[in-house]
Amino acid sequence: MLRLFFIFFRIGLFSIGGGYAMIPLIQQDLVGAGYMTITQVTDMVAISQMTPGPIAVNAATFAGMHTMGVAGAVVATLGVVLPCALISVVVARFFFSRMDSVLVQGALYGMRPVVVSLIAGAMLTFAASSLLMPGGGLEAGAAVIFAGVFTLALVKETSPAVLFLLSALAGLAFYAP
Amino acid sequence: MVAVIEREFSGKKKWIDPDEMIDIIAVSQSLPGVIAINGSVMTGYRIAGVAGAAVAALGVTIPSLAVLMIVTLFYRQFRDNPWVNAAFKGLSAGVAALLASVVVRMGKRVLKDIWTVLFFGAALVISLYSGLHAIWLILAGGVLGYAFKRGGVA
Question: Which of B52, B114, B117, B126 has CA atoms 20 to 30 A from the CA of A52?
């Protein structure tokens, strides 16, 4: 339980640049510690996107609830919220006008490209587990969904909720019994 | 989310000055952590101090906590149903595709010069081929970024 708290505390502390940045951290920590499988993490990302509220909080509640029930949900959520809340209060109190400094801007300048590549890494893991069949070879239905959603997201800027609704429907069309 | 905060507190209720709201939004995006929580907590703090911050944090967290607890119960109950499984197979391809689009869009905004492209490439190779924890890569990026800006290289 304490371990779950610290995992999420660390995730809250190191998610830089929004909800997507925490996905590679969640994946590395929870799958690494054996709490969840890749498939469950992918499900978690889909569910946290489709439900209202911040992705990070939704994901923490899901992961905590899934691994350790109600207490786990509360502990994981506290873990992810606490560092953000503490940092925000300290910044609002002392550093508000100093956020333009070379230190902050320089650090962000170097961290942002790293975060993009971590998200790219998580994307490759998810794509491999979804698009490749266990014995090798491409999963045709999933590949069509991937191409369609990628195009819509980039060209039409369709909202994630709509994209996921379409993916679920397409999944039913391709794979329903 | 940020748009809702802005409309409520600076537009409708006039609890906070619009310029200060813009600053809060900018700062909450450069802080580590959940942007929605950073923004809410700073707004709460500026309006009512530490108590305001605590209330804001709880307020933005509790609905998600409640909804996701219920959703997770259903998930555990029905994940193995063949129909639900089919929908999640579609969703997993959708998640990968959405992340791919996020990478492209963030990449266009963030990879502005040779150094950021190098940081991106190096971090990708290291994260794919070594077990190094993501946190070390983020920290290394921060230190190098600061050093480069400070030294006038970037």
Answer: B52
Contact A65 B73 (CB under 8 A): yes
The pLDDT tens digits along chain B (154 residues) read: 666 777 777 767 777 777 777 777 777 777 888 888 888 898 899 888 899 999 999 998 999 999 999 999 999 999 999 999 999 999 999 999 999 999 999 999 899 899 999 999 999 999 888 878 888 999 999 999 999 988 887 7
Q: What token pair was written down for B120?
A: 């991106």
Secondary structure percentages of chain A, helix, strand, coil, to 5: 85, 0, 15
Residue B82 tokens read as 């063949």
Of the candidates A170, A70, A28, A32, which has an alpha carbon nearest to the alpha carbon of residue B137? A28
Nearest CA in chain A to B148: A106
Distance CA A28, CA A46 (A): 17
CA distance B5 to B60: 11
Residues from chain B contacting residue A168 (CB–CB below 8 Å): 87-88, 90-91, 94
**Other C-beta atoms lying within 10 Å of the C-beta of residue B23:** 16
Contact B93 A114 (CB under 8 A): no
A85·B53 Cβ contact <8 A: yes
Residue that the structure tokens 């607890």 belong to: B69
